[in-house]
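Q: Predict the bound structure with manganese (II) ion.
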Amino acid sequence: MTIERVIKKFQENHPGADVTILQLAFEFADAAHAGQLRKSGEPYIQHPLHTAYTLAEIKADAATVAGGLLHDVPEDTSHTLEEIKTIFGPETAMLVEGVTKLGKIKYRGIERYRENLKKMFLAMATDLRVIFIKFCDRLNNLRTLENLPPEKQKRIAQETLEIYAPIAGLLGIARLKWQMEDICFKVLYPEEYHDLEYKYEVEKKVERNQFFQKIRKILVPKLEEAGIQCAIEVRFKHLYSIYLKMQKKERKFDEIYDVFALRLIVPTVDDCYKSLGVIHTLWKPKPNRFKDYIAVPKPNGYRSLHTTIFGPEGKTTEFQIRTQEMHEESIYGLAAHWYYKMQQGGAYQSPAWLKEIIEIQKEITNTSEFVKKIKLDIFRDRIFVFSPKGDVFELPEQATPVDFAYAVHTNIGNHAAGVIINDKLGRLDQELRNGDFVEIITEKKRPYPNRDWLKFVKTKRARDRIKQFAKKSKLETIKRLIPGIRR
Ligand code: MN
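A: Predicted complex:
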């Protein structure tokens, strides 16, 4: 890797930007790390250069790419953070300091691991760019993993799979997530990895290509007739996701593999819906598999239309339909966009989960509790449900109508007596599904929430409100029963 390549990549995404800081940061880091070698034997500067290159790829800004070049200077060389601040200014220095504070994860027992994880979340809540640098740093360390002892390789891979990859997913940086996952999969389950790799890349390749050509021949003319210019591509499923599906659904490779995955990239949002119409006219859609992430994007900003159809030869085929802009966002993530908006003082709303992290952190000082809570509340997947008025509510997967009621309003939660889900009577403890229409039936006379709800609610908000009420009503009862206590 060279600084020229880093700068070229950076300029692709930031045409005309001043790159002096990148050149300077490289020269400073190169001099600082002079004589140091990586475990692989190559000059140390290769590591910060690769880190900076990946940052440029995910469209990071100049201060962040410079931060990537400098990220190991304060810890591994005789140069200080103060010097970096003087030369490169407070912004880059702050980023480097953030990464340095995150520290190198050295794995001395579970406590240290948790402490590091907590630090990572806090850094994320402060400035997302610190996390971007840390991710790209980690990715390069993963790619050079084979130079470490096997035990250490496994520990790093495990941690990446448990913590880094899910956070990358949360931030919508699919590209980093896949890359990390497949490297870790190979390290942790080498046999399964090579087995899948052979089946997917070698055995099925011809079949996949033939099927793709068949679909293409039918679909492209029809789209052209409708005036839609499109690019179709085969979606290569990354191996770890195939493996996970096989685990989760206990299915064989052939059953998973039989699902062909294609992606359609069209010029406009309008074309997305039009092409969906064309596809559904040509082939029968599979019920309940259509998802409109354009009208209702995922919490990490992901947008696309998803549908599954019974294609030629009755083969199940998944389509993702999106514009070029949506496509790029799905690969590089929206995190950067959020940050820019925030800096420009626009009407920026930090994503709900980021606010939750800050809230949870205020409340829970015990580290292992904090980590458990984050994993429970943040990492679980999210669903969207609708109120009768059509308002959208974002809830964790497995949330119940009671969680929904409290998300709408405390009073609705407290007085909830029943629920109508998609025009049918439902139960207050049942799991809601993505896209459900939920109407809570309230009973004004009902004096307080049912304590038993605590057994099934999934959100902190609902739990807190129910507990709060339970406490209050207990106190009221005591006051009523024991005369003489002042109200
Ligand atoms: Mn590093």
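A: The chain has a mean pLDDT of 83.
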